[in-house]
Design goal:
This protein has 278 residues and is of the alpha/beta class. The protein has 2 domains: 30 residues; 239 residues, Peptidoglycan recognition protein-like (Lysozyme-like, 3-Layer(aba) Sandwich), CATH 3.40.80. Helix content is 29%, strand content 14%. The strands form 2 sheets. It has a 7-stranded mixed beta sheet. Strands 7-8 form a two-stranded antiparallel sheet. It is globular and about 40 Å long.
């Protein structure tokens, strides 16, 4: 506790204590300010083990080669704090947790994200992300209801809306995701693009009116790629330079994944034939 005398500005004391807490938090997490600047990420002390009974859930196959762990597989005892509305999906956002690249238990990491996001620091109803991708290539439903359909997400700096969030488990400031994680990320993005009828041709983008973020104020018109990085719409380093460098490759692979199976429910043949090769 800082000493305070009658001439001390209490607001300055509060700021100094906040800064000290921030430094302690970063030291505990063992990462860089750049990795943590989005503020959505958890520290080592937030990792929470899950009941062993959660580890036998049946995976849900949503597309060829893509099977997803349902939310109960990590959060059977961690219900959302309140109901969340659906989302009008216009694009997809890639995040990272900025946690270890070699987690001992992916479930524990996701549970830690839940505790942090629903706790006093964020006070969100559930984990912010719709889906998680582990370094081993495993894919996990995040925010409740995301397997069944679109669910509105959250983000530090303000949720500008109209997106579904896919979060890589790991720190990709300087280390790229594993090959297995990249393959699963691409398949998840392709599945979501097909489900929501999003174009994935070369340089595909979308334009919408922001609901508000620290980069785009409410009411501001935004144009961003269909597959974007968190930093494209918010002032943050997320999902890290090493991941951002791979975005052009991921966009091409998403197009290839989706265009190889154009017969997707809700997608018209004419739309598929109209796509441009990247």
């Amino acid at each position: 506790m800082l000493p305070v005398d009658s001439g001390t500005d209490l607001r300055l004391v509060a700021v100094n204590q906040t800064r000290r807490s921030r430094r302690q938090f970063l030291a505990l997490a063992g990462t860089t300010t750049a990795a943590m600047c989005c503020g959505d990420h958890l520290s080592a002390s937030d990792i929470v083990s899950g009941p062993a009974s959660q580890q036998g859930s049946e995976l849900v196959e949503v597309a060829p080669g893509l099977r997803i762990h349902p939310r109960n597989d990590w959060g059977l005892d961690l219900a959302p704090k309140w109901a969340m509305p659906s989302e009008d999906v216009k694009f997809l956002l890639v995040h990272h947790t900025a946690s270890s690249n070699t987690p001992a238990d992916v479930r524990a990491v996701i549970r830690g994200v839940y505790q942090f996001h629903t706790g006093p620091a964020k006070r969100w109803p559930d984990v912010a992300y719709n889906f998680f991708v582990g370094p081993d290539g495993s894919v996990w439903e995040g925010r409740a209801g995301s397997l069944a359909g679109s669910v509105v997400a959250d983000a530090t700096g303000g949720n500008q809306g109209f997106s579904q969030l896919v979060c890589l488990i790991g720190n990709h400031v300087s280390v790229p995701p594993t090959a297995a994680a990249q393959t699963s990320l691409v398949r998840t993005l392709a599945w979501l693009a097909g489900r929501h009828g999003l174009n994935t041709f070369a340089d595909a983008s979308t334009t919408f009116v922001s609901r508000g973020s620290n980069k785009f104020g409410a009411g501001q018109l935004i144009t961003t790629p269909i597959v974007s990085a968190h930093r494209d719409v918010t002032f943050t380093a997320c999902p890290g330079d090493a991941a951002v460098a791979l975005l052009p490759t991921w966009r091409r692979r998403v197009f290839e994944e989706l265009s190889a199976t154009w017969e997707i429910e809700g997608m018209q043949r004419a739309q598929r034939l109209g796509l441009i090769e990247p």
